[in-house]
Amino acid sequence: MRIAIISDSHDNIVNTEKFLAWANENEIAIIIHCGDVSAPSMIKKVMVPMFSGPIHLVHGNVSDRKLLKKICAEFKNVTLHGDEGEIEIGRDIPLQAGGEKMKIAFCHFPERAKKLAQSGQYNLVFYGHTHKPWIENINKTILANPGTLGGLFQKATFAIFDTTTKNLDLKVLEDI
Known about the structure:
CATH class: Alpha Beta
Oligomer: single chain
Distance between the termini: 19 Å
Helix content: 10-25%
Number of strands: 11
Strand content: 25-35%
Number of domains: 1
Largest sheet: 6 strands, mixed
CATH topology: Purple Acid Phosphatase, chain A, domain 2
């Protein structure tokens, strides 16, 4: 199974639509959004119409929290986790052949993500906010920032995690 990790889309409709079309063509099963969707209407008018799989997201620092909560509640495939989220492969997500249980945490801010990674409770921790793609290992945890899907201050990027091969790849949107 392949999971797409995005962050900081900041209402860039063109980039979000391009990413979602790629996600559908490349059999992405789940999307994790690490915050800064910005306008909650992006969920209703762009993401849900173009992607039918589960979408897990957290608040960023640019967000209408009340409206985002209300809109996300309208869709069964969208889960707003608050300021940080957690999903477990083998509990929340079915295991694929050859797969193993894994815990994934995600939030918006790098400081919080680093603390989650240092806790040793997770295999993977994802975050956003800086708009800079980054991958590092903290003990046995992979800590990663997929960059900015919105393309603000950096090229538009996202990450893909394959739960079977355990491979984490960074994708540059203009190259797909």
